Structure formats: structure tokens, C-alpha cells
Amino acid sequence: MTTSGTAAPQPPHRPTERTVHGDTVVDPYEWMRDKTDPEVISHLEAENAYADARTAHLMELRSTLVTEFVGHTQETDLSVPVRRDGWWYITRTTAGDDYPAFTRVADAGALPQVEPGVLLEGEQMLLDAQAEAAGAEFYSLGGLAPSPDHTLLAYAVDTAGDERFTLVVKDIASGEVLDETVTDTGYGLAFSTDQQWLFYARVDDAWRQHQIWRHRIGAPAETDELVIEEPDERFMIGFDRSRDGSTLVIQAGSTSTTEAWLLDLAEPTSAPVPAGGRREGVDYGVEHAGDRLLVVHNDGATGFALAEASFEEPSIWRDLLVAGEGERLLAVEAFASFVALELRSAGLASVRIIPRAADGSLLIEQAVDLTHGGELDTVELDTNPNWEQSTVRYQLTSMLTPTTVAERDVAGGETTVLRVTPVPHYDPSLYVERREWATAEDGTAIPLSVVARREVATDGTAPGYLYGYGSYEMSIDPSFVPTRLSLLDRGVVIAIAHVRGGGEMGRDWYDHGKMLEKKNSFSDFVAAAAHLTDSGLVAAGRLSAEGRSAGGLLMGGITNLAPERFRAVIAGVPFVDALTTILDPSLPLTVGEWEEWGDPLHDPEVYEYMKEYTPYENVRAVDYPAIFASTSLNDTRVFFVEPAKWVARLRETVTSDQTERPILFRCEMVAGHGGRSGRYRKWEQRADELAWLLDQLGATELIS
Predict the structure, then answer these.
(1) Which end of the chain, N or C, is less packed with Cβ atoms under 10 Å?
(2) Residue 587 — very low, low, confident or very high, per pLDDT cuts 50/70/90?
């Protein structure tokens, strides 16, 4: 490990007082929130320069890692073609290009035999994202959809990283752009049946998706019409086009409550019709199933239930299937002859296929689960756009299984593997994956997904890497991530801690890791760390950790709770000034977040509880791990100021030797919540983080 005499940037104190519920807090760094302030920009640039200086000795390792990332990727590649009506749609990547190309070819009957880098006869270019992004520092697509007759293509483009999009409509045959007048939209786009109208969403000043609009293609954006608005600041609104193309299904949701409407796309200027109503605490999703509605809901069912309803009485649900012990029903997708139910069972993602009778009813007793028998298998639905299809595509992955696209014939039961993502220079027999269980403070068993090289001994000497998230009922399922091979091949044991606050073990798992039980997420992660070291899987002084966004909050929490457990921590776009943010209703997403964290502005108990764990306000004067924090200037979800303040407080408070355990901070000056755009740029960013991590762990050399 090389040290540097370069001084770390330390912004000046400019105290700001915050008084809530009689409690006054003096914040010396809140002034850095203004990204238009030249002094703030200068500080961020100084942080980047400092990070460059402290990691200059890692230049060769970074380059090596990028080479390894590329070496484990078939750069010129393509997706399995997806049939939409009379066309097969294909996504292609090309070596040297950051962005893909989207193409299509006419349906000649069978799945076309396609090869990377070789266009089929008659294959048409729909969108060359690499060409469109030429010269742009940032480029991201927020949606892409062909029109009902497949003559038009609509897509959404973000060139700043702030997740506000410009809609583009082009004629596929000529390539002519017909419309790009609608700007500053949110996620989602859908054509009307006559493809004269395009539906889209807008966000408010707090970046809450709160309105659905319709735009007449070719007309000025000022003439667009508001379809529906969600006034409750707890709720965000979005939509999907039903699989049969008849209906726009609109859903508004908070963390705990939802409401749905239906709009007839053949009558695009009609008003949405309620489809289920709103009842506080009832969380449900509606699927248009042709002759009826299917609903996945939690009304009287903690693990959720699958129900059906008529279009005439959409609020009256008849349960067809209630989640069993250890299950959580997630969502349902309907087809003419079957439905596919996504669920969680025994902590893993799964798919259940349910045939439909001739009258459209569901044959629950004939349900079949799609499984492959692996201890850490993740099974999820793939793209299935056609109402009349007789097969269902799904994806299988694990920590050692590259993404595999398979297809099940629903009537016959045969399964066909369509594609296993090629991973050059990868031999799965060199590694082993398994499920481990840690014991939390309250005795709860916490699952871990673990992978390592076979020859790595469990004698308490190996370096380790522990990842976690633990919020919003989001599950971090076992999956194959090619960049992890660079850690594994250097002897690093990799684990995912499935802590409470996530959804891995069902709705109760989420409920016991939010609001006034949020601290369980932190203590669960520490228990997972203790298990890795106490069992000899990882050396006590060589364990690292990573979390991003709300997982960055987790990183801040565990470094305050048990800093001695970790040697190095990566905190990506970290939500580390949680209390300041959740106290301010004007900030993006805050009011809606009150159902996740609680409302500290109006509830003194929540305020006190959050103040006890919010990372920025609980940094201690003890030895801390080395920390690498990263953010983006245009991040709308977690403002750059949160890690900027946190790093400043860490540097002036912790007692650890920051020459040996540096606290670094990088800010992407043109990017958003997901960091850099483009696969090569993302690889470079990831190599920067992992080179630093491997250096801190003393694991820079490949296993011979």
C-alpha cells in the first residue's frame, strides 16, 4: 500500500442550526448543498484530485482490472430475439461501443438463428444508441417502444443523469424524427391504439412522478392534455400497456398503499376508470387478463394473495391462491392460455405457471413452479410481450450461473434453454457457492449467499467482501456478476447479507427492518460480518463491505455501529444524511419516504430514533475502516451533499491513521444516481473502486 503526503480537502465550518422538537443541531457543512456555488464545485474538484493522488499507485491495477472485465465479456454480442407481432426484435452490442444497437427482422416463423456481429438478411436498424450518444458525456435510455403497427418507434433520452427525459418519436422506415418536443418527463411511454397519441409521465419539483399526460404526436407540447394527477405527496404514479394492447393500466402507490385505474387505448381521450379503489394499508397490483382482472394484494394476507375481479366490480376480489408458509407473492402476468406468477419462496425468487381453462378461469391445482434445483438459483420472468403465446420465457441465474434465458412450453411442459450468456475465460468448476446463516442479536437467522474459489481455505486468513442493501422490500438476489471474478480470482470470499428491510424472506422481513425497527438492518449486517470471521471464512482484519444508495445508509450505519469489524468500505451514492433529508418535505421523494423511515418532522419518537442511527450525525472518535465514497453531481435521488458532508465529518472525527486507512470521495460531475453511462465508462469506474478495495485488503495478486 502506497501512501501520499497530499493533504485531504477539508471544507470550512459555516454553522447552520436545525431545531426540531426542541432539539437543536449545529451542522457545519450544510452550506455545501448548493451545486451552483463555485466554492462547492471547487471543493468537489479538489476531492477528485485528492482521490486521484491517493490512488495514483493503482493505475496499473485499474488497467488490469478493466482488461479482466473486458476479457470476461463477449463484447460483440446480442440478445435472444423477442417476437412482437410480425417482427423479431434484437439488441446488439459491438466491441468498442459503449451503447447497444436495437434492430429487428421480419418474422419468418421460427426463432431466427442469429450470430454476434452478423446482420440477418433484411435486419433493420431501429436505434443506434452509440451514434446518438456520440460526443455526449452522459447518455441513458429511459424507455423504448414500437407503435402498435410497428411503423413508429418512441424512446426517452437523458443526457444529464438527472432522470428527466426527452421523448423522441421516429419513423422506422425512413429514420425521420417526427417529434421531440416533449421534455422533462419521467419513466414510461405508451402508444394509443391508433398511434396518434403517446402517454407519458411528469415529475414535480420534488422529483415525484405525479402526473400522466397524453401528447398528440406532431402537435406542440403546450397542447398536451393531463390524464390524471396524484395529489398525495406520499404517492408516485406510473403505467403499463396491457399485454393485449387494449388498456393503459395506471397505478399510484406509496410504500404501503396503492390505487389503480384503466384507460381504453382505443379511446385515448377518455377518462381513466377506477379499478380497485384506495384503502389505507392495502397494497395491490392489477393485471389486465383479457376477460377479467387479476389482482395480487395484501388485504388480509401478509404474504399476499392472487385474486380475480370483474371489470364491472373491480373492487370485489375473489381470492384464488393465498401465499403459503415462507412465500411472498409479488406480481402476476396474464396470457390468453396461462398466467405467470412471480413469488419468493424459501428466500429465493421463483416463477409459478398456472394454466387457464377454456373459459379463462385459472387452473390453480395444475400450477407448476419453474425450478432448476440450485441452492442459490434466482428465477424471474424474461420478456414475454405476446398475449397469444403458448410458451413463457424466464431467466435463471446464481452467483456462479451466468444469466440463462429459457423457455417453457406451458401445455407440454418441455423446457428449452435459448441462451446462456457467454463468459469468456470462466470455468465455474473453480468456484463454490452456498447458503450460510448468521444469527442476529435477537436470534433471527440471517441468510447469506456466499461464493469463493474452491482452494480458498476456511482457516481465517482469506480476504472478504460483504454486500448489503436492506430497504424498500428490495431483494438482492444471488446473481452472476462478471466483475466479481476479479475479486474471486484474487482469493476474496464474496457474500451477500440478506438483511431485514429487504424483501428476501417475505413482507415480515421488510416490516422488521423499516420505521422504528430500521436498526435491525445494521445489526443484521454486523451479525453477518461476525459469522464470516467467526466461522473462519474470512480473516477478522481483512473483511470489506459495500452498499449503494439506501445500501450506502447501511454502510454508514455499520461503520458507526461496529467499525472494528471492517477493513475497508465502499459507499456508493450513500444516503448518509438521512435525518436532514427526511425532515425536509421540499426535497425529492421525502414525503413518500415517511412510510419507509417514519415522519421525524411531526413525530418526536421517529425523530429521536432516526437521530440515533443517521450516519452523518453519529460518527465516533474511534478507529474506522478505510472508506471510498462516491456520488454524482446530478443525482436526484441522493444529493451529492450527503456524502460530501459525511466525508468531511469523518476526516475530522475518526482516530484511525488516514494515511493507512484513507477516506476518499469521488464525484462524477456529469452523471446521476447510476454513475457513469456506457459499459466501458462503467467498467473504468468500477475498476477504480475495486482496485482501491483490493489494495486495502492486500489482495492485489491473482491466485497462481
Answers:
(1) C
(2) confident
- Return the number of other C-beta atoms located less than 10 Å from residue 148's C-beta: 17
Number of other residues whose CB lies within 10 A of the CB of residue 56: 11
- With beta carbons less than 8 A apart as the criterion, state whether 152 and 171 touch: yes
Active site residue 13: no
Q: Do the Cβ atoms of 399 and 451 come closer than 8 Å?
A: yes
449 is catalytic: no
Q: What CA–CA distance (Å, rounded) separates 5 from 25? A: 34
- Contact yes or no for 305/297 (Cβ under 8 A): yes
Q: Count Cβ atoms below 10 Å from residue 160 Cβ, excluding itself.
A: 18
Number of Cα atoms under 13 Å in the Cβ half of residue 590: 18
Helices 679-697 and 59-71, interaxial angle, to 10°? 120
DSSP 8-state class, residue 567: S
Cα separation, 401 vs 432, whole angstroms: 11
Contacting residues for 492 by C-beta, under 8 A, at least 6 apart: 452, 462, 463, 464, 465, 694, 697, 699
Cell of 531: 459469522
Pick the catalytic residue: 635, 677, 688, 695? 635
Please state at what angle helix 519-534 crosses helix 604-613, rounded to 10 degrees.
30
Helix (H), strand (E) at residue 507? helix 507-511
Has 635 been annotated as catalytic?
Answer: yes
Nearest to 146 by CA among 85, 202, 77: 85
Q: What is the arithmetic mean of pLDDT over 227-251?
A: 97
At 42, the amino acid letter reads S
* Backbone torsions φ then ψ of 156, nearest 5 degrees: -120, 135
Residue 5 has pLDDT above 70, yes or no: no
pLDDT tens readout for residues 131-160: 999 999 999 999 999 999 999 999 999 999
DSSP letters of 18-46? EEETTEEEEESSGGGG-TT-HHHHHHHHH
Helices (H), 577-704: 578-582, 590-597, 604-613, 641-653, 679-697
Strand partners, 504: none
Segment 422-428 shows an average pLDDT of: 97
**DSSP letter (8 states) at residue 325:** T
The one-letter code for the residue type at 661 is R
* CA distance linking residue 434 with residue 419, whole number of Å: 24
* C-alpha cell read off for 397: 441465474
To which H or E segment does residue 527 belong? helix 519-534
- The catalytic residue among 72, 673, 677, 695 is 673
Q: Residue 106's beta-bridge partner residues? A: 87
Residues whose CB is less than 8 angstroms from the CB of residue 66 and which lie 6 or more positions away in sequence, other chains included: 680, 683, 684, 687
SS3 category, 202? strand
Q: What pLDDT does 672 receive?
A: 86
Cβ atoms of 323 and 304 within 8 Å: the answer is yes
CB proximity list for 209: less than 8 A, separation 6 or greater: 186, 187, 201, 202, 203, 236, 237, 238
Mean predicted confidence (pLDDT) in 600-628 = 98
R_g over Cα of the chain: 25
Residues 6+ apart with CB under 8 A from 694: 61, 487, 490, 492, 700
Check 147, 254, 549, 632 and give the catalytic one: 549
Distance CA 434, CA 354 (A): 30
Mean residue pLDDT across the chain? 96
